[in-house]
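I'll show an entry:

:::
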Amino acid sequence: MSDNFTREITPLLMEWRRTLHQKPELGFMEYYTTYRIGKELEKLGFTIHVGVDALESASRMGVPDDLLLTEQENKALGWGVEETWMEKMRGGNTGVVATWDTEKKGEHLGLRFDIDALPIKESDTNDHFPSKQGFRSQEEGVMHACGHDGHTAIGLGVAHFIAQYKDTLTGRYTLIFQPAEEGGRGAKAITDKGWLNDIDQFYTGHIGINPYPVGTIAATTRGFLASTKLNVHFKGVASHAGMKPEEGKNALLAAATAATQLYAIPRHSGGPTRINVGKMTAGSGRNIIPETSYMEIETRGETKEINRYVLQEAKRILHASAAMHDVEVTMEFVGETEEIECDDSLVPFITQACEISTYVTEVLPYAKVSGSEDASFMTNKVQKNGGRATYMLFGTELPYGHHHPSFDYQEAVISIAVDAYIHILKGGMSHE
């Protein structure tokens, strides 16, 4: 049943992936993406929830300003998004939650797929597969450089399986197409809406991260770090750099001081830590004492407590740098993640479920990672309420790493992931 289904739906998976790849959208601005997902799910017969029905709007973090939101909304309308749909999403309320109740006794399974892109200009060289095949991003400076176009296609493939085999399935299914994963901004808003409150088993995962052969999947991951994302503004006083330098208060120097000193935060004995200054802008001209500067910073730690240590040290350094140069500093918290501890008890279940798959060739018990994931809010909520949760990896070659302008993956991994999820769903039925 599943092998035939996966083979037959593969052309559609590729079509969805390539279409979405050409129209990437940043977090909380995935209007076109949400619309395309929602229309497909609606056609299949799912009960769909969009906008404030899908997420707790007040729990969103790092929402773009109104000007950017309006610009993307108008662009999405030009791409064919219906006005009735846009009204549900306006103001950055993107993402879809789809539910299906078989009305037969069984467990409640939740699956999450992230849908946002990154602010990266995609490579246009002929050795870059999307460029060579004609589906490179049409949005300059925005790119699916982390595989979320594939994740969305995977989710739609799973949805098609549920709809097609509804008469043989049991229990309930909640499919979450989450906005704004990048920067740890969207999952908490979905979680706070209550979608994870009564999930028995929760599954999510990622294409790549580790370069495994296509056909290899990891049933669990170890090493995701808790993280906090900060936007920092320094405000000084502008002055003529030649005639009155003593009257100026240099915001650029405050940011530069902070940038160098943040990397001097002592490591923690309790586990790994990270600090990164990803963006810094300042000043307006060579003969003007810089009045303003801006930084985008993130901290990470193996646990929430260790991340809190790095964050406190970062805040201390930021305040000290401002005081050194006699400028003001303000900080905006725009994202966060928690650590993830997958349920090892799902390893034998996933392994056994995928044994009969002709697509999945190997199931690793776990994969070691070191990034951060806001799906942590979802996994931790499920586990807190007595359910089981895991974060999987789906193998592919990675000539270039995630978040690189030439990032790409072997498209066959999309079919592998769909088939793995299908066997997990079927295994859950037999388990019942």
User: Anything to note?
Assistant: The chain has two domains: 2-224+340-431, 226-336. The domain at 226-336 is CATH 3.30.70.360 (Alpha-Beta Plaits).
